Amino acid sequence: MRRLPGTSGLNDLSLMSAADKRPFLPGEITLTKRSPDAGDGNVGFVSLPVVEDRPRQPRPDWLRVKLPYGPVYRNLVRLIEDNNLHTVCQSARCPNMGECWTAGTATFMILGDICTRSCGFCAVQTGRPEPGLDYDEPRRVADAARIMGLKHVVVTSVNRDEREDGGAPIFAQTIRKIREAIPECTVEVLIPDFRGIWEALQVVLDERPEILNHNVETVPRLYRQVRPQAVYERSLEVLRISKRQGLRTKSGIMVGLGETEEEVLTLMDDFVEVGVDVMTIGQYLQPTRMHLPVEEFIHPDIFRRYQEAGEAKGIEHVESGPLVRSSYHAERHV
């Protein structure tokens, strides 16, 4: 495969086995249809059962948030639905949805709402997406962002591993359409790893988004459990390539999945090595009983220690707190 400028030949890493280099494709994942009493009662939601059923821990007081409400919020929900769009705010049940939307930031999820991967933490549906791409989706995203009066738009997506291009052309077109519709608006993309197909990544990088975000999600030791179709080194390579091409880079992790503090600090060293500018750290919250359980609710004092440690190591900005998510305060990271 042709190597792009700024790559370091990740596909040649001796640390990676042949199985690690290639993620599972949709046909290789055994899927189970959710029953009405398996979590949130959403019949027909397709997901991979990844853990045994066990009682959830009660949430501590610092994780209690107000649900979004009011006419502004309802109008925004109606706008999203009327334009047949998806936001990760809704699909991933983000606790900060109301705060971010009223602050002029929203995260649109393109390429549909069915993901080809089966991450153990994620509430987005897993399965086989409809074939093809929706080439009108970028226009609808831009129109919605304009009507919502957004100042900073975050664009993310499901994984589309069944496609060689991973859906990269829709990312690129969405960036262009947002800039046409709202010239003063900044754009952040939260991208998948494109299975290490660097030509697909380059399609996105060529549009020069203000922020290039790719989450590693957790420490390397937990990847097989948390991100079974991903490779930690490959995610670092996405960030390294993006930084070498002059983009502002961002990545994030969840804590409370069983990682140690030492593992988080070592991961920060990896971020410094590849040039990550912004890091987000938030508490993992189990979306349904079909997903990984919370191993520990991390105290706010530890989040503060993580922020201080990351910035002391050389990461420009660390957004760290129990309710922090990848797009939380995203407008401040430009």
Task: Walk me through what this model shows.
- It is a single chain.
- The protein is α/β, with parallel strands linked by helices.
- It has helices at residues 18-21, 71-82, 88-91, 97-102, 137-148, 168-181, 198-205, 223-226, 232-244, 261-274, 300-313, and strands at residues 32-33, 46-47, 105-110, 114-115, 125-126, 152-157, 186-190, 211-213, 249-255, 278-283, 317-320.
- The strands form three sheets. The chain has a seven-stranded parallel sheet.
- α6 (168-181) runs parallel beside α7.
- The relative contact order is 0.15.
Strand order within the widest sheet?
3-6-7-8-9-10-11
Structural class: alpha/beta
Strand count, sense and barrel status of the largest sheet are: 7 strands, parallel
Task: Please state the average pLDDT score.
Answer: 80
Looking at the structure, what is the overall shape?
globular
Compute the CA-based radius of gyration.
19 Å
Helix content: 25-40%
Unreliable stretches: 1-52
Classify the beta-strand content into a percent band.
5-15%
Distance between the termini: 33 Å
In total, the number of strands is: 11
Secondary-structure element series: HEEHHHEEEHEHEHEHHEHEHE
Number of helices: 11
